[in-house]
Specification:
By secondary structure, the protein is mostly helical. The chain has one domain (2-198). The protein has 10 helices and no strands. The protein has helices at 2-15, 20-47, 53-76, 81-89, 94-106, 108-118, 122-131, 136-164, 166-171, 174-202. Helix 1 (2-15) crosses helix 2 (20-47) and helix 1 (2-15) crosses helix 10 (174-202). It starts with a helix and ends in a 5-residue tail after the last helix. It comes from Pseudonocardia nematodicida. Pfam families: VTT_dom. Residues 39-159 form the VTT domain. The chain crosses the membrane at residues 24-48, 54-75, 139-162, 174-194.
Length: 207
């Protein structure tokens, strides 16, 4: 993932000054593969005047929604043996399938918003939404606005950094890679902390 991220950011940096549209395509692909890091890095370029902020926002939003839709579609075909094995590899194990699909049917807004904003268990949650035969329009009705809020925060964060460090980013573009990796490390640490806290609450008390 680090190699893919490095290549994505390198392509983004190289294309931004002369080909903004191509840069936004790179943003969309990068956001699909590793959304938060690439989105913040692209927004930093926007803050430095290299890209339009609205283009970064749209590219990141579309990539995120497409990625969630792919998971949803996989879930809709989860009864097929080959797809079922793939779902297991993606985190929707047999032990979680029944309970998670039940939760999605009963509490779709809470599941979708929690998975999107906290970014914990998003993959199995969206697979379960498809497996539970949740209507796609209903799925999008919660995915799109929640994604818009998430992307707005990430773009705003990156834009603010790029606006303050515009000269440094132009002269030393490798700072984008370092900053992106730092953002990824912070997000990963947050996921681990929240994941452990959630597991601790679900663990039965030993008397």
């Amino acid at each position: 993932m680090v190699v893919v991220l490095s290549e994505t950011l390198a392509g983004l940096i190289a294309a931004a000054p002369s080909a903004p549209f191509r840069s936004l395509v790179v943003v969309a692909v990068g956001a699909f593969l590793e959304g938060p890091i690439v989105t913040v890095a692209a927004a930093a370029l926007a803050g430095a005047g290299q890209l339009p902020w609205w283009g970064v926002w749209i590219a990141a939003l579309v990539a995120d929604v497409v990625g969630d839709t792919v998971l949803y579609v996989l879930g809709r075909h989860g009864d097929r043996p080959r797809v079922a094995r793939l779902l297991t590899r993606l985190g929707l194990t047999d032990a979680r399938r029944t309970s998670l699909t039940r939760e999605v049917r009963s509490h779709l807004p809470r599941i979708v918003i929690g998975a999107k904003l906290v970014d914990i268990g998003a993959v199995p949650a969206y697979l379960a939404a498809g497996l539970a035969n949740v209507g796609y329009r209903r799925f999008l009705a919660w995915i799109v606005p929640t994604t818009a809020v998430r992307v707005t925060v990430l773009v705003g964060l990156g834009y603010a950094v790029g606006d303050r460090l515009a000269r440094d980013l132009v002269e030393r573009p490798w700072l984008l890679l370092v900053g992106g990796l730092l953002v990824g490390a912070v997000l990963l640490a947050g996921r681990l902390v929240v994941g452990r806290a959630t597991a601790a609450r679900r663990r039965p008390r030993v008397r």
